[in-house]
Design brief:
The protein is an alpha+beta fold and about 100 residues long. It is built from 2 helices and 6 strands. The strands form 2 sheets. A 3-stranded antiparallel sheet has the order 2-1-4, with helices on one face. Strands 3-5-6 form a 3-stranded mixed sheet. The longest helix is centred in the middle third of the chain and has 9 residues. The protein starts with a strand and ends with a strand.
Length: about 100
Amino acid sequence: MYCMISFADKNGRSHGDHPQILDIQGITWFETEDLAFKYYMFLKPELRDNDHVFPMLEENLSWHFDVNSDYVKNMKYKTRLLSNAPEPGVTVYNNGE
């Protein structure tokens, strides 16, 4: 699964050593990188910052996060969006805590 990572706020101010995993209209995790990026691009332009936000594979979170932190553990329980290819539409689920 992929999430969108922000390295700066919408004004370009760095989050420092603490990038953020984004909730995009209630969704945090996406089945593919393409789905994550497309969903992010559905946001109004004033809510996006294309220069500081990137999709990241869940297995690669350790590149920028302490994966044992409460923050990451909590974010892993957020809502996930799955594509139903070749069927149209998506499936949304929340694996709860």
